[in-house]
Amino acid sequence: MTNKSTNKPVRWYSESGKFIAMVNTDGTGGFSVTVTRRGVEDFTYGWPCSRLRGPIRFEFESDGDLIDLCGTAQNGYDLLALSEDAEEFGTKAREKQRQKYNLAQGQ
Predict the structure, then answer these.
(1) pLDDT tens digit string along 37-59?
(2) For every one of its 107 residues, what pLDDT tens digit does the chain have, with 9 covering 90 and above?
(3) How open is the CA angle 23-52-89, to the nearest 5 degrees?
(4) Which residue, 81, 103, 101, 104, is CA-closest to 29?
(5) Which helix (H) or strand (E) holds 35?
(6) Angle between helices 37-44 and 77-104 (to 10 degrees)
(7) Burial category of 41 from C-beta neighbours within 10 Å (exposed 0-12, middle 13-18, buried 19 and up)
(8) What is the dihedral of CA 60, 32, 82, 92, to 10 degrees?
(9) Rounded CA gap, 69 and 71, in Å?
(10) Structure pTM?
(11) Is 96 helix (H, G, I), strand (E, B) or coil?
């Protein structure tokens, strides 16, 4: 997939229309999800004792395994839950990109 259009970031918006995360693919099947400061704040409303602060970037291998994260975050169940949400969104966004690419190629 060398088509530049497949490498455009996919944006994720909250139900209220606020930009909260972005997915980038690396061309090899891996992907990263950057959760914005606003996205982390919105997420922590469900985790009252959370100490997460954004933005936080999660990097995943092609199979969805988390391989790295960047940002000010301490290990905990809140970080695990946010990484799972990021992986789910990233996987869906990557699949959408593949479908668009295949459609553009006539497949």
Answers:
(1) 999 998 888 888 888 988 999 99
(2) 233 444 667 777 777 777 778 888 777 778 899 999 999 998 888 888 888 988 999 999 988 899 999 987 778 899 999 999 999 988 888 887 777 767 777 76
(3) 25
(4) 101
(5) strand 31-35
(6) 130
(7) middle
(8) -90
(9) 7
(10) 0.79
(11) helix
Backbone angles phi, psi at 95, to 5 degrees: -65, -40
- How far is Cα 35 from Cα 40, in angstroms, rounded to an integer? 6
| Domain residue extents for the chain | 4-98
The two three-digit tokens of residue 35, written as one number: 């959760």
Place of tokens 């088509």: 3
**C-alpha torsion sign, points 107, 31, 8, 11:** positive
